[in-house]
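Students often ask what a holo structure prediction actually looks like on paper. The answer is less mysterious than it sounds. You provide the chain, you provide the ligand, and the output is a string of discrete structure tokens encoding the 3D arrangement of the protein together with zinc ion.
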Amino acid sequence: MRIDNLSHAILFSSEEGSGALPQALSLAGYILCSDKKEDGSACGTCPSCRKTKNAVHPDLHFIVPVNRSAGISAARQPVTDDFLDLWRSSYLENPDITEQEWYKKLEIENKQGAISAAEAGNILRKLQFRSFEGGARVIIIWLPERMHPAAANKLLKILEEPVPGTYFLLVSHRPDQLLPTIRSRCMLIQVPPKEYRPLPRETYTNLERLLDLCFSGKPSGVLDWAEDMATQGRESQKAFMASSMQIIRQYYMLSLGLPSLSFLDPSSLPIASRYAARMSETFFRVIYERLNKGMEQLERNVNARVLFCSLAFDFFLSLQR
Ligand SMILES: [Zn+2]
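The corresponding structure tokens follow.
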């Protein structure tokens, strides 16, 4: 995998219990592994992998919502480090632990946990030092929607000035409750629900047709494509935008050599991989933003012909080398 291309902030989003936390941990394992395999997986046996598996790697940091429970003095805000052993054992017992299960472990059941400004300050301090093992470091933020606004603003400052070799993996069940400025700093990975419905074949067909036209360098064909899309109903146009964002994410994971995070079924992998291989980091950034904006424009009833023409040309331009 081209780990240099990996975004320094990744937001895993899923329903509760859908495996987003284990997915984030498995990516953390890959980032920290000292003997990465060609196929984009961690070796599973090096000292780093063993430490990650037990959640004790010194360069793997956790931030989770906590609250004052019996043993902690009231003099300061509690932080994850106060409960680190409990968090590790709870996570190892059930890697897909739910928020309520965690509060039960914390014995604060009738209170909610929070990620305080003190927690963000804690991370800032840790980032001032070199990583313990001299390599990358990973900060997993579980349930960032529980961040206090002051914590969110501090985190935003960190995300705006990424530290090389430092990766933030956010695991959220309610990404809509995050600051939009934080969301926009992160590459989003939507972990499909357990009852996963594959994306509509029609979207793949429409998107692949556009990509083929772009790769063959034919702007006139791209215009025809936009005309066809403009004549479809508004609902199917919206469905195209939404599903395309997910497909672009699949391509992104493939381009990083992480097929397991693309959630594609094996039969679709070869075709998708061929497309992904021709896409650059810039393409992913530009087009993801562009589709997002397209969704909003459709909500506001912007002229579909204008919208799809400009979308198609953005695809065309960002795919020319
Ligand atoms: Zn390893």
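The mean pLDDT is 89.
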